[in-house]
Amino acid sequence: MDKELPPNLREDNLSEETKTLISSLPWEKDRLGKLYNYHGCWYYANTLQGVLNFQKGFKPQDTDIIIASLPKSGTTWLKALTFALLERSKNRSSDDPHSLLSNNPHGLVPFLEAVLYLKSSKPDLTKLSSSPRLLSTHMPLHTLQVPLKDSPCKIVYVCRNVKDVLVSQWYFRCAYSHKEVDKNILESLFESSCRGVGFYGPFWEHVLSYWKGSLDDSKHVLFMRYEDMKAEPFAQIKRLADFLGCPFTEEEEHSGSIDKILELCSLRNLSGLEINKTGKTENNVHYSNFFRKGEVGDSKNHLTPEMESKIDMIIGEKYKDSGLEF
Ligand code: PAP
């Protein structure tokens, strides 16, 4: 079973040091394997190895941009938008097609702990786009910040209503394990998430770490919401461009450039591309699994009213006094 899992979810690539470390960590078992709690966050063992490798070996550059999220919160979309925003300053000739047409956003903006540093603390990063480097992570902010120290690099976090995240995770898990959509899987994801256990969870700690980070240091941490991006994409992409220091000019605003980027990065466009129908990530996950409905509120079709009110209650309690509302 272990061998069929994507490499970041397995437990077969640990250093002796990490084996010793995890033997002392709290753990829980889910359907995919053992999750270990390291500094308040749950990881499968190989991903934890990636986190440790990253913390040991990552050397930030001042211009780095890091896309951060909980899985299934809009990562693919934000990667595409950020990549497209930065690409527009590069003068491409008309016969040079956009990289987003031939590569998936996950191929263009690789994950730190789950891909680049998964196997080594000294990966070859020379293949990354030169400057700025675009990177991504699902780590919580306090873990990400360890090797960043006083680096002025920019972090963009995307957050999504956790009920929709849960349903999206459920579909994703069933799809990559080639299983029928099975309600038992949703129920166990729900039950463990409510207890604060789940890959990269507890979700409320994750969201709050970036929310507080964005309040404390708004020049370096931008907090975005999937729901706002759906409701007002024009305003949100402008916000993103301003934060990254590459604002749209008036000419760009009026000439339809923003609409073109939004169209290029739309779920409809990306999911229809050959690369996204047939390609796979470095961790052997079909790109097609990253595109589904992309709707706000799809959880209503799958969670019972009791499940919804339990999550609402948890969120209400955990986010109270934070200023964060859903
Ligand atoms: P990841 O964290 O594993 O990379 P992520 O991209 O965050 O996954 O989440 C996938 C969700 O984003 C899917 O939501 P759904 O299951 O509710 O449908 C997917 O459909 C949605 N998504 C992917 N690309 C886009 C896009 N271009 N625009 C809007 N939503 C998108």
UniProtKB/TrEMBL annotation:
The keyword Transferase applies. SUPFAM superfamilies: P-loop containing nucleoside triphosphate hydrolases (SSF52540). Its EC number is 2.8.2.-. The keyword Transferase applies. Pfam families: Sulfotransfer_1 (PF00685). InterPro entries: P-loop_NTPase, Sulfotransferase_dom. Keywords: Transferase. Residues 62-323 form the Sulfotransferase domain. Belongs to the sulfotransferase 1 family. This is Sulfotransferase. It comes from Camelina sativa (False flax). The gene is LOC104740024.
